[in-house]
Amino acid sequence: MTRWAAGLLLAALLLGACAAPTASVRGRVMRDGAPLAGAAVRLEPRTGGLAFEVRTGPDGRFALDRLPPGAYRVEARGPGALAALPGQNPFYVPAGEPVWIGLQAVPAESPSYAPLREAEPGFGAIAGHVRFRGQPVEGAVVTLYADPDHGLRGPGVLESFPTGPDGAYVIEGVWAGEYWVVARKRQGPGMGPVREGDLYGIAPANPVAVKDGQETRLDVHLVEKERDAPPDAGILRLTGTGVRGRVVDPEG
Questions:
Q1: Model confidence, pTM
Q2: Could you give the domains of the chain?
Q3: SS3 content of the chain, % helix, strand, coil (to 5)
Q4: Backbone phi, then psi, for 14, in 5-degree steps?
Q5: pLDDT tens track for 9-45
Q6: Rounded distance, CA 173 to CA 189, Å?
């Protein structure tokens, strides 16, 4: 091998070793249990910069490759007045194997406003109904968050009492400002992250403005929490934690 060829080989090896690691995303957007084609899925870096966008295919699936690893705000919009946000948002996408993001679309409603009869200066209220596939949800709790960067988890700024049979909620005495509205209906007792089978909803209109002396009216639509893996794969890296192994009989 000549010195010139050896130099080229060494340069190629160095470039490969210094190449920045990349991340990949796979996912699917569903609407009431059916794949949603033509939805625009957008990943926006939490720190700002270039956003990445792709549309779902006929099977509702999408894929994005060669992404810089990091935290992204994820949403899907359309077709029509539909939107979907994941339960974990921002969503961390590590380098290496693809991560799975399952999204479920709901009506993308905008808030309306009405004057309050009585309100302390600087305060407003927010009210509406919690629904699942168009039906009212009893026992759901609506929580207001001021900062989405903590993943919309845990106790927020304020929360409603559990909804009644009509699914209605109201939160009064809310300091005027912008909030992220999240509703949850758990199938069992306890706190922590939503589990498979729980109902949850992140309002597509977020952040929602609560105005001085006004009642913000907004319905929140829930979806059912699914398992964090594609339906046709046994192993997939999700958010940095993976499990690998094999099943054996008593004799090994």
A1: 0.78
A2: 16-106 (2.60.40.10), 112-224 (2.60.40.10)
A3: 10, 40, 50
A4: -65, -40
A5: 555 554 444 567 899 999 999 999 999 999 999 999 9
A6: 27
